[in-house]
Amino acid sequence: MNQRLVKYDYLSILLIGAGLTLGCGGDSGEPDPTPDPQPTPDPTAVGTASAVSATDAGDVGNAGDIRVSFSRASDESGIAEYRIVIVKNSSNTPSVDAAAALVSERYLTILPGSGQVTQRIIPTQKDSDGNDIQNGSTYSAIILSVANGTSATINAISAPSPTVDLNTRAPTVSSLFFDDLTNRGDASDFEISFRTSALENLVQEYRVVLVPSANAPLNNQTAVTVPATGYTVIEPTGNDVLVRLDPAATDSDGNPLSVGTEYFAQVISIGAGIANLNAVSSPSNSSEFSDKTVKITYLGNDGVLIADSLNRVIVDGLPGNLSGWVAIPVGVASSVNTGTHPYGGIDLVLITHNHGDHVNTTTVNAFLANNPNAMVIGPPQIVGGITSNRVIPISPAFQQKADTTVNGVFVEVLHLRHFNQFGMDFSTTQNFGYVIHLGGKKIVHLGDVDYADDNFQNFSLDQQNIDAVLIPTFNTLINAANRTVIVDNINPGSVIGLHLRPAQFTTEIAAVMSTYPGANLFTVPLQVLRY
Hints:
alpha+beta
């Protein structure tokens, strides 16, 4: 007998006797058809938390910025407590035993209860390695379910949450306003104002940027591309900011400013302290870089602000009841009345006549108290109710004019007849028109003028090269005959229609544009025209 075969048979006998089989190598072997049994869950192991998430929900620059949410285990009967552990992304996620061994400063305890858990981490908590949790790092959260030691004795650990980048962004500025105040032909024409944040300790510096309106506004990513020549640095002082730009300032691309181009301003807050990210403000209003010398800003109804590089004049900008007319925005009215930026610094107040939609004496008196340099001109019917001694005593006879210079502003005062409208007789209402000389231009405001040749025949305005005339344009005032009166007696370079009724905008705007082709219309407060 072959010795090798004998040994094999003997081994086979031993294995069979032990209840085992010996598989043969090679293609003829058959697998065991009986699958391995699945492990039975350990009844002493606790349930596991799920749906763990972590978010950056604050700006204190420590663990208190992290908010963790998770779903409780479906069976909490064996759980003594949950422990929220924060793990830095560069570290290994601890095992269940390692997590259970962490000292208390490295986790936050949550007791069993009901419902989804959402919890802010306490500011002093450390990460799983015992280090401070801080900005500029990436973290995830794990939840350790701790067994109560009686009905359950084995802890369980959740899967890590998605990672969260912990950052604090510098605070943005607010109330950003941008204005072209002068006409020097360089960036110093522009003035910018904004409110700073109460968290200004998180700002190293502000960078004021002019962005061409044709470009997309800057965002937190594109702001870093602005060259050093493209911004103006403002140091934090704890106060709100009002700044005139340097004459050599360029736009956000580093290019010189271009006449006729609209720009808006943005402010980049450069982070300091715990603020490891910069922030960009929303865009301001837009403003044109212009070589024109006079700017007319519409306030509401018949009210305008007319300015050049030195002086500011308002006409009918302190009204009373504007029901049915274009109202002056509350913020604008407050700025005008209190003499604050950006509508402060008024040199002269012109009042056309004593009707509530043009003037309110209480408002005028309050304005003068807040604007100690401003002077007032108006018809006797209105100035008699003004208590200040800063009323200019000028009152030309009916259909006559008188000239005066006030705070450097030369004005021609025209005593004109008031129109009659809505079946009402206003013939006894004193109505003043004004020829305002600013920036080498002549701007005429006619108040509620009656469109009649005899109302203008003594003034020879058609010989003065008037740059623009502001005229009331509503109801039956809009017609070809009235246009002829304006053209023949004033012959202005530009017609500006205002004093319209919002309820009749659709019909009246169309009628004005048909009657005065090429005219400008003031219908929305803060519209701007330049001459």
